[in-house]
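Pipeline run #58 for the internal structure catalog. This entry was flagged by the ingest filter as a single-chain record with no existing model, so it goes straight to prediction. Upstream metadata was stripped on purpose; only the residue string is passed forward. Reviewer on rotation: M.T. Logging verbosity set to normal.
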Amino acid sequence: MDSKSPTHTFHIPVMGLGYTVDTPIKVAKYGISSVVSIMDDQLLEDMRKIYSKKYVRKFTPIPDNEDDYRAKRITSYLDLTQSIIEEQFNKLVNDESGPRDEFHKYLNLLPVESPLIPLLAKQKSSSGNEKNELKSMMKIGSVDVNIMTKVDKINYDRSGNELPREYSDALSALRGFANSRAKGSVVFSAGMNPTLYSYAEQFPVFFPDETGKVEKGIILKVSDYRSALIQGKFLAKKGLWVTEFRIESGLNCGGHAFATDGLLIGPILEEFKNKRTELFQTLYETCQKTLESKSLNRLSQSPAFRITYQGGIGNSTEDSFLRAYYELDGTGWGSPFLLVPEATSVDEDTMRRLLRAKRTDYFLSHASPLGVPFNNLRTSSGEEQRISRIEKNRPGSPCYKKFLLNNTEFTEQPICTASRQYQNFKTKQFEAGEIHAEEMDIVKAKDCLCEGLGAPAILASGETPRRNLTAVTICPGPNLAYFNGIYSLKEMTDHIYGKLSLKSASERPHVFVKELQLYVSYLKKEFESKLTEKVTKREAHLEKFKGNLIEGIAYYQDLLHNIQFDSGSILQKMREQFTNLKEEIESFRIQHPIAVSH
């Protein structure tokens, strides 16, 4: 892994199962890094077939009855992806006989501070060394992969016998990536999975080579400093180096929303900034000591160590401030790229729905079978299908892919809470008066994410998904509500770098304000929800949450007083918004049930 800054200062994070599944094939040749979810091996196999045909490659199916088929499918898709990218890039750089628009597109997408820009000016008036030096500095974007650590189902053979632990979903995915040619890192998201992290020890690619560099990096997606330190030390004690900590907003992001206890992103980034050296030294010393005890190659003196942020960034002013003030190595821009067909795979019907969507159509739902709040779109075809099934007294989905099996309430082997089987069990409970209507509403809100998040990639390619399941679920972050058009890749990158400003809703709040608004809405619902068991513990949690938000506001108010990072009028508006939100938070009171005397 190269410890120097990447060609671009941003990356495109994973979005759903299908929206970024082929993003590297679309943008890596321009030096833009992106993340592919590798949890759905069926989707990857279908996409491998599609791209093998498009790029005239031999396609040999990997059937379900083949040994270790899941890992092999992942490896094969990533190998194909890397091969296509390298072919694209070599043609872009070296094909002097063909049109040069791709070569110039690469250069025109770069930020103005890129070290390639001065060389570009020189090479226009020279055909010698400057041109060769320019080409040598042009890099391919990395093919990073995402493993959601909670999606780690134990699998069984055709006779119903439990397979060894290394054949679970997450461990198979890691093996598939480790054995592939993909040049990138694995992103572990959704918290620590000790078994998965320990399994990484089986693969030399995650350890330093004879030069001290790590071939495939490990990136941790974290919500706060404490989580980064705990997970980083766990891995370091095994000799595994974390090349990047990718900090994500708890609520101002797409997909699953892992809310903090009211800790806001500003104070979180401040802590990372202040403790960055301490974090590096702690992990570095621990990792080196472990490597030495294992008689393995040691890390170089300055291994790759990046701290980045993603979630709700909307313009170049915010992006540049975050990178400069918090000394970040980069940022992640996700949801806005859903409106960039050159970068992501969104089918035409879903794109139309996004363009028509109102701000109220973006909401935090109970759709995920994992029981984690899930950003959703009310007007998606997936939501229409879910509601239609309820109206027909057929709630729930057929469960074909079985990636989210995690409930054993009614069965010996886990089933999915979005499945028709599970929802039928809960319906019978409700009809028998064993559960309340509120609980039943949450059950019915569950949706099949396996099919819904994978379908758009197949549909966008012009093909039909397996079993003709075409309803699409989309999980944009709240930030997408402020973008209102279809954009080219150059328009979006220029917007990120401040070369132009895409028109967005004028009332869009600053990224700090928007996250706070989301947390205030979230906390308000928590205060309004019924207090049941463990009342004292619940009260203490809500008060702690409330206190953290107020402390976060105090941090922002002090920041606005000392830092000038926007125009005066916007600064004054932010001050007013923070004051009003603080007053709203302070008004929250727990409503205890009124005792009824007999």
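catalog note: The first helix runs from residue 23 to 27.
catalog note: The chain has 21 helices and ten strands.
status: ready for reviewer M.T.
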